[in-house]
Design brief:
The complex is a heterodimer of chains A (111) and B (112). By secondary structure, chain A is mainly beta. Chain A has no helices and 11 strands. Chain A has strands at 4-6, 9-13, 18-24, 31-37, 43-50, 55-58, 61-66, 71-76, 85-93, 98-101, 105-110. In chain A, the strands form 2 sheets. In chain A, strands 2, 4, 5, 9, 10 and 11 form a 6-stranded mixed beta sheet that branches. In chain A, strands 1-3-8-7-6 form a 5-stranded antiparallel beta sheet, with no helix packed on it. In chain A, a hairpin with a 4-residue loop joins strand 9 (85-93) and strand 10 (98-101). Chain A is globular, with a radius of gyration of 13 Å. Chain B is built from no helices and 11 strands. In chain B, the strands form 2 sheets. In chain B, strands 2, 4, 5, 6, 9, 10 and 11 form a 7-stranded mixed beta sheet that branches. In chain B, strands 1-3-8-7 form a 4-stranded antiparallel beta sheet, with no helix packed on it. In chain B, strand 4 and strand 5 form a beta hairpin. Classes of the chains: A mainly beta (111), B mainly beta (112). The A-B interface holds A 4, 31, 33, 35, 40-45, 48, 50, 88, 90, 92, 96-104 and B 32, 34, 36, 41-46, 49, 51, 57, 59, 90, 92, 94, 98-106, 108.
Chain lengths: 111, 112
């Protein structure tokens, strides 16, 4: 079946930029998403990108999409301690907006 | 504005007992509804989705079932829980034709 893969852990210093990477296998994915999960909570939609776009910027967040390589990244500028969380990449596949998720990247921000 | 509720927030159940988790959405009509499960340290797996009252599609074979008795209500059930049913269950909704999918706060189920 289709798959989404992410590295499991990233540690950055407060104030630096964080880059979280994701690869997916479904070449027919229409939209790709980034969600944030804080401990014990549900998922918060951060941003998404249409598969025909290369880049999307939203305040401190920049999403880059390389459709040829099926590679998605999320850059967080000026990372803060409040950004510490698990970040999930997801692709929309088939109809009805069904999402396939990666295993999540745990971002740790240290002083 | 739209909100999504799930209850209970946490649940501890013995093996072989029944299960009923409820999800309701407010502030929207005719949403698509979804149930996902997150096993410990893993990503989310889509279990069921629904595009209307009484319409349920199952994504993976399992010990669970889903029902949608009302437009904004989605229920996840089991007749007899297994240890492997433990996990974090998340309900989500999206508007018809919309791109965004929004998640509820989740229910943590522990089967002992």
């Amino acid at each position: 079946g289709e798959d989404v893969e992410q590295s499991l852990f990233l540690s950055v210093r407060e104030g630096d930029s964080s880059v979280i990477n994701c690869t997916y296998t479904d070449s027919s994915s229409t939209y790709l998403y980034w969600y944030k999960q804080e401990p014990g909570a549900g998922l918060q939609l951060l941003t998404y990108i249409f598969s025909n776009m290369d880049m999307k910027q939203d305040q401190r967040l920049t999403v880059l999409l390389n459709k040829k390589d099926k590679h998605l990244s999320l850059r967080i500028a000026d990372t803060q301690t409040g950004d510490s969380a698990i970040y999930f990449c997801a692709s929309a596949t088939g109809g009805y907006n069904k999402l396939i998720f990666g295993a999540g990247t745990r971002l740790a921000v240290h002083p | 504005s739209q909100t999504i509720h799930q209850w209970p927030a946490t649940l501890v159940q013995p093996v072989g007992s029944p299960l009923s988790l409820e999800c309701t959405v407010e502030g929207t009509s005719n949403p698509n509804l979804y149930w996902y499960r997150q096993a410990a340290g893993r990503g989310l797996q889509l279990l069921f989705y629904s595009v209307g009252i009484g319409q349920i599609s199952s994504e993976v074979p399992q010990n669970l079932s889903a029902s949608r008795p009302q437009d904004r209500q989605f229920i996840l059930s089991s007749k007899k829980l297994l240890l492997s049913d433990s996990g974090f269950y998340l309900c989500a909704w999206s508007g018809r034709g919309a791109v965004e999918q929004f998640f509820g706060p989740g229910t943590r189920l522990t089967v002992l």
